Amino acid sequence: MKKKNKKIHASILIIGNEILSGRTQDLNVKFITNWLNEECGISVQEVRIIPDIEKTIIKTVIELSKKYNYLFTTGGIGPTHDDITAKSISKAFKVKYEFQKEAFSILEKYYGKKKFNDGRKKMAKMPSKSLLIQNPASAAPGFVIKNVFCLPGVPSILQSMMNYTKKFLVKGSKIINKSVNVYTVESNIASELNLLQKKYIKHIDIGSYPFFRLGKIGVSIVLRSSNNTKLKSCLRDLMLLIKLKKIKTFKI
Questions:
Q1: What's the pTM value of the predicted model, to 2 decimals?
Q2: Is residue 98, in this structure, part of any structural domain at all?
Q3: I want to staple 174 with a disulfide (CB 3.0 to 4.6 A). Which of 41, 60, 123, 238 is the partner?
Q4: 1 is a domain residue
């Protein structure tokens, strides 16, 4: 992994008609988001889901790759006619869409020359000068071009490949989460949380999430920060606030 930098932001682009139609449930966002934060200190700032339409892929890849340090795409790098992610990204960056020699060799060896048909050969085509993301699960590699990481949509395969992206990434500051669960309604603590957020606006992100559990209404208050000292200070203030309002806390 490259030299550490304090704040590194990423976005995730889910590509696939099957996700938008509801036929397939996305399981990749949670995994990628958690992995990036825990392993690399990289914070995901935006997630988008788009169809398998070339113009849409090109436009979105250009936009998100400029907006964030890294862009992770999932889906559309398989052997079928609607797998157009690699070709679209080639057009986005105005480079050739061609066979990557190492990828071709890996797949030819994996399938054998007789079974290495045109569909499987397609998985070796990617933007010119792409670097490979190894695939220990099913051989077909993903690729990196500029700050864009292209991964498959199948969750088990994607998860097996994430560690191979680490060498291309600059490490950032890990975001630490602290949660406090209370039995109350949001309106009862809204003004106090607003004041607390203003006090720590530069260092802490405070989230308030209502729930209904075992017949009781409650709120999960989540504190997020890369500054552990400020996080502890904010947590102390929060617990004092809860005590003064005589609100009960509990663990899930």
A1: 0.89
A2: yes
A3: 41
A4: no
